[in-house]
Task: structure prediction
Amino acid sequence: MKLPVHKSSGCGGSCGSASNHGVTRRSFLRRTAGVVGGSAAFAAALSPLMDIPEEDRQFDVKKFLQKHYKEMNADEMEAALARVREDVELRYDVRPEIRDIKPMDGVEFVYALNLSRCIGCRKCVHACVDENNQSRDPEIQYIRVLEMPRGTTDIEQGDHHYDRPKVPDEDHYYMPIQCHQCANPPCVKVCPVEATWQEDDGITVIDYDWCIGCRYCEAACPYWARRFNFTTPTIPSDKINTEMSYLSNRPRHKGVMEKCHFCLHRTREGRMPACLEACPTGARKFGNVLDPDSEVTQILRTKRVFVLKADVGTLPRFFYYFDERDPFAQSVPIPGAPS
Amino acid sequence: MKEYFRFLWRCFRLSFHGDWRYYTWMFLLTAVILLGVNAYCKQLVYGLITTGMTDQVSWGLYIANFTFLVGVAAAAVMLVIPVYIYKNDELHDLVIFGELLAVSAIIMCLMFVTVDLGRPDRFIHLMMRFNFPISILTWDVIVLNGYLLLNLHICGYLVYCAYRKRKPSRKFYIPFVFIAIAWAISIHTVTAFLYSGLGGRPFWNSAVIAPRFLASAFAAGPALIILTLQVLRWATSYPVPNKALHTLRSIIAVAASINLFLVGSELFTEFYTQSAHGVSAHYLWFGLGEHNALVPWIWSATFLNVGALLILLTPLGRKLMLLNVACVALIIGIWIEKGMGLIVPAFIPSPLGEVVEYTPTLNEILVCLGIWSAGLLIYTIFVRVTVPVLQGELTYDTIYHTSAEQGHETDETT
Amino acid sequence: MPNPGQHQRHPHPPSKAAQIGGALIGPAFLVLALGMFMTSRATVLPNAPTPVVQPEQIAPVPRRTPMSDPPTALIAGFEQRCNDCHRIFESTWDGERTLEQHQDIVINHGINENCFNCHVRDDRELLVLQGGKTTTFSDVTTMCAQCHGPIHRDWRRGVHGKTLGYWNAELGPQHKLTCTECHDPHSPGYPHYEPLPGPNTLRMGDPGAGHHAEVEARRNPLRRWADDAKHNSHEGDDHR
Result:
């Protein structure tokens, strides 16, 4: 029984071998032209892949199968570190010293920031960039300093782009914001692959070789602390900090997240983070909150500390406080006093 | 089993055959798909910097389209409910096209999520360390893939039974249909929960997000189905009674009304209180200082939605031409409202109060168009195969006469 | 399911237009291919460079070098011990006339204008403590504490001032900066700095177009009286 026929004219795909029906020289040429044209267009579509840089072209099976940080044993970590060393040498022409530094026992880090002392000089921002091998183009900076007017801690009233000849300005105070290593971190909650988690010393870390770049954590962070590598980061070779650690400042690749990690390659060995060292006024304070004699414990116990966006419930480990003294109080004369 | 592969092979070959309208359509879709592939290759080489996204606005057109299409996929259930629960007759033969649309939409969703990833090569990490049940994104992965499998099974089973001229066994599809009804609600609710659970984004941190999603999905999805069914009627010989279209119209009218009510409800809460919570809504509807890129979009979308609703709720909607106009207006309006009106404003201002606006780049738009074309291509192929099967023209014991199959006449008869 | 054969379509041979159309598909793909090949290298990416910052601008060193102990001064081109001169010359300063030597010293220490509030009149290599006692220049913090009690307590806790080195003194050296490593004792007010460059992130837009001023005007409770307060309080710009 013959059913109605749909005769087609020209087709873009394989249409059976030559038979007595419907395949004329003309239609064969049409079909071949279609196939050739289609293949050429497909090849052209894929042609930008020829521009993949040299260092990204090698496919390393071991790297592809590299386990999550928490699952690697010591040998696997050594192998991973060796791969990172090679990768950094290939890209930046420097030999890094990279290790995997574990948290210290009995340590929980807390950061405190004296808002009466911060003058908004932004030295911390740039010291962090240098220390942590952040991309210079496009710019990635973990710390953002806000110039806040008196009378409020409402962040929306802050100016990110202040550009005065001299700071501080008497009508403002300055609030640097970076990752608060929250004790109830929304970023850790939302990561679908557990590429970010909180370690025992309180630092929220990222396994750069595990992150899939979905940027859900960036959407979830209430403090805008996380950064994404929209392209391969640009770091001048002479600016590379060769003292690296797996979870902190080793150079990242495009497509992964990064953020402040309290300079864990320094702080887990007892040193101060780079932002604190650069701060000229000593507004930044860092230490082990479990040690009753540490500077931060003293601050938490003696100063009126507060946190940002406490209502969101993130329990930050980054505390702000004002001193009793306001550096600009002198510009307001005391009523009735001799000048 | 061998018969099944033969069926698939015949479907594959059939997708290359049709009339001149079919070829024009498929060529255009293929061309746009290739442009999208080209743009995506550039994105693979340079990274997501080829898009307009930034650290401040870190989700853009890809996730906007993803959100819209999850809604379209969920809306297939709007055909299933009347037919299987309320025993509606005129929609009975059309349910399968709704489910095929759902499959195409879900595939598009998965593609949109993949192109949005910074490291798509690492997607196997999802299977190795899966932060379920804490991360809502993992719930989304499960429900979306589950919904895809569910609909593939239902459609595949019914079509293959028609191909084999067997009566489909109820126990192989009825339970799945009912699961699909609940599952469809869940896919869009889970997607809404992705957003509404974030305390750091007050624009999203609202209970009304999930209901809004569902209402807008159940308005835009069936609108798309009304349009595709008419295209189906025009392009093939498959019968699509007007009564079916008008049943869908009444569903859309209700859903669009609820959607508009929820939008109004949100507007009141954001603007009457005048607190910092409403700053993103202020950006969207009135702009912030000099930053007002989204204002014309949201007002156009509202105008389209209200206009469409006026047509749907009045006797004007009974005219098919005006109904089509209303459907197009509703699809565009809800696409804008969900995409630019929901995803992007939550990032503006940033959690630290910085305003950085978002404009998609040409590359980004080409990738989106490529994925849309791929989805339409897949749906076209589904329809190209399903219609002859359901009409009895393509079955295991007959030849569907195209110039392809004529050459194999002796092989195919049983 | 509809009955098979419910609707039959009449077959029609491919029209001339359709044949020509079909023939165009191949060349159309080739044109598309050509277009894509030509534009595939033409990707223009935006720049968002960080301004270069010199290492000395962010060096983790104390702001100033404190006076040595025993203290010295640069007099007529020579670095001299204080008592070399002051043992010979009687100190006749009455608190009024300008100094003949040490003219590089600017006193801007609030109401503490008298040199002998801090310096021992009879031994310039010592500093004054209450009750007639003295201390050395290396113990300057004790002297500052005489007046600046609360700040001194904070400094002792490590809350005020800066600590360089290790947060964990067991693992490495800790250097708590003394008062004079940040503050010039004669003009201790902290100087203003020129801020380092602000952010320049990807596709940031115009940095001057922020809306924070508008928000401040609307939501800052102090704003309503800010202008009046400003007019009354100014004594001049240089407080330091």
Notes: The interface with chain C takes residues 19-20, 23-24, 27, 31, 34-35, 38, 41-42, 45-46, 49-50, 52, 54-56, 93, 162, 237-239, 276, 279, 288-291, 349, 353-357, 363, 390-393, 395 of chain B (CB under 8 Å). Chain B has one domain: 2-413. The two ends of chain B are 16 Å apart (CA to CA).
